[in-house]
TrEMBL record:
It comes from Populus euphratica. The lineage of its organism: Eukaryota, Viridiplantae, Streptophyta, Embryophyta, Tracheophyta. GO terms for cellular component: plasma membrane. NCBIfam families: amt. SUPFAM superfamilies: Ammonium transporter. It is a multi-pass membrane protein. Belongs to the ammonia transporter channel (TC 1.A.11.2) family. InterPro entries: Ammonium/urea_transptr, Ammonium_transpt, Ammonium_transpt_CS, NH4_transpt_AmtB-like_dom, RhesusRHD. The gene is LOC105126796. PANTHER family: AMMONIUM TRANSPORTER (PTHR43029:SF11), AMMONIUM TRANSPORTER MEP2 (PTHR43029). This is Ammonium transporter.
Length: 458
């Protein structure tokens, strides 16, 4: 075991965990309409807890354990002391660290799926969806791509830190589930203002900074490759944010804060499959493309394509995660540097892990095109699996409980679902006038003031 590696791995895992709790909890609770703040935040918090119990119960072994079939491990518990203290299958780390590190990745995937379903999914249906999707979708993708015994891993797919396993999966699954759950109310679809943009930025900031652990932890060692991955991550993200911001200004005339946040997310997603295997100039080019191509699909194509208009994807996870994740996977197949791949994968074989750009430059075009083909095969596999499995899960849950909240609950929001509200404020974002009626500056709210009378003070 290596104490330095283990210390960094536990730190990186905690950084990723902070992306979810409190990062996405805050972001979801702030970016939605006030009446959905509690429900949206709690969907994320529930998923985090539920995934952990399932992960140590059977999920980790199905994703990284002994082979059962070419794309899935054998279910088993990951709580035995001897197993947890043994060396993990990668790195000089105990299994306990690896189980924890991989858990936070699994958890954030389910939380990203939730982003497409905010503002109308039945919470009881969500409680069933999380363990089912983790068991029958996430584990298959993780084993196939990340486990050394997985069929795509053996073919040499490059997914440095989850562009396929996490982002493409969550984007496609979220979009598919949103189709089956159905849309928000017409009123909410027409106007869905954030209840607190400053808090939204706080959540976004935790997401961005936490990505140092997301991509910096995947070499499973304190290495130069980890340092490169962290720097590439932030360079690509900053470039993507600025590109999105510039496009918003050019076409809409205003620098949108929410738009910049979307550009930040697409940059983080796009660089994830490539972070430690591309050079810095490639990270900048990827940032330009991640800030422009998803912007185009969201702002232009979304209004033209029938399917995209039919599905109510609350947080636009199809664009920010499915499109950006696919883009990152393809660009990885183009820009991946063979020497950096050898550092990360620790293999001397140049038949795999060579980007098309370098294959053409080095006279190994066949190997470069082969890598690109493997990257495209991975996209096809993840998309097909998640459309099919997510649809089956939603149809099965629908037999037990409704996927969508009742009309009455949709109108009321948090108070009807949880009996709790996020803010003791007037209305749902409406403005009101107030005046002072005491030396302590207590305000009178219009609904509390009877005609010709005063509010009774405690």
């Amino acid at each position: 075991m290596n104490k330095g590696d283990n210390a960094w791995q536990l730190t990186a895992a905690t950084l990723v965990g902070l992306q979810s709790v409190p990062g996405l909890v805050i972001l979801y609770g702030s970016i939605v309409k006030k009446k959905w703040a509690v429900n949206s935040a709690f969907m994320a918090l529930y998923a985090f807890a539920s995934v952990l119990v399932c992960w140590v119960g059977w999920g980790y072994q199905m994703s990284f354990g002994d082979k059962m079939i070419p794309f899935l491990g054998r279910p088993d518990v990951s709580l035995d002391q001897k197993f947890l203290l043994d060396r993990a299958f990668l790195g000089y780390l105990p299994n306990a660290t690896m189980v924890y590190f991989q858990f936070v990745f699994a958890a954030i995937t389910l939380i990203l799926v939730a982003g497409a379903l905010l503002g109308r999914m039945n919470f009881h249906a969500w409680m069933l969806f999380v363990p089912l999707w983790l068991t029958f979708s996430y584990t298959i993708t993780a084993y196939s791509i990340w486990c050394p015994s997985g069929w795509l891993a053996k073919r040499g797919i490059i997914d440095y830190s989850g562009g396929y396993v996490i982002h493409l999966s969550s984007g496609v699954a979220g979009f598919t589930a949103a189709y089956w759950v159905g849309p928000r109310t017409n009123k909410d679809r027409e106007r869905f203002p954030p209840n607190n943009i400053i808090l939204m930025l706080a959540g976004a900031g935790l997401l961005w900074m936490g990505w140092s652990g997301f991509n910096g932890g995947d070499p499973y060692t304190v290495s130069t490759d980890a340092s490169l991955a962290v720097l590439n991550t932030h360079v690509c993200t900053a470039t993507s944010l600025l590109t999105w911001l510039l496009l918003d200004i050019l076409f809409f005339g205003k620098p949108s804060v929410i738009g910049a946040t979307q550009g930040m997310i697409t940059g983080l997603v796009c660089i994830t499959p490539a972070a430690g295997v591309v050079q810095g100039w490639a990270a900048i080019l990827m940032g330009v493309m991640s800030g422009s191509i998803p912007w185009y699909t969201m702002m232009v194509l979304h209004k033209k394509l029938w399917l995209l208009k039919q599905v109510d994807d609350t947080m636009a996870v199809f664009h920010t995660h499915a499109v950006a994740g696919s883009l990152g996977g393809i660009l990885t197949g183009f820009f991946a540097h063979p020497k950096l791949n050898r550092i990360f994968y620790l293999v001397p074989d140049w038949q795999h892990y060579i980007g098309l750009a370098y294959g053409l430059q080095m006279g190994r075009a066949t190997a470069g095109f082969k890598q690109m083909g493997i990257q495209l095969l991975g996209i096809l596999f993840v998309v097909s699996l998640n459309v099919f499995v997510t649809s089956i899960i939603c149809l099965l849950i629908r037999i037990v409980v409704p996927l969508r909240l009742s009309d009455e609950e949709l109108q009321t929001g948090d108070d009807a679902i949880h009996g709790e509200e996020a803010y003791a404020l007037w209305g749902d974002g409406e403005k009101y006038e107030s005046r002072h009626n005491s030396a302590y500056g207590v305000e009178e709210f219009p609904q509390d003031v009877p005609k010709g009378g005063q509010v009774e003070m405690a």
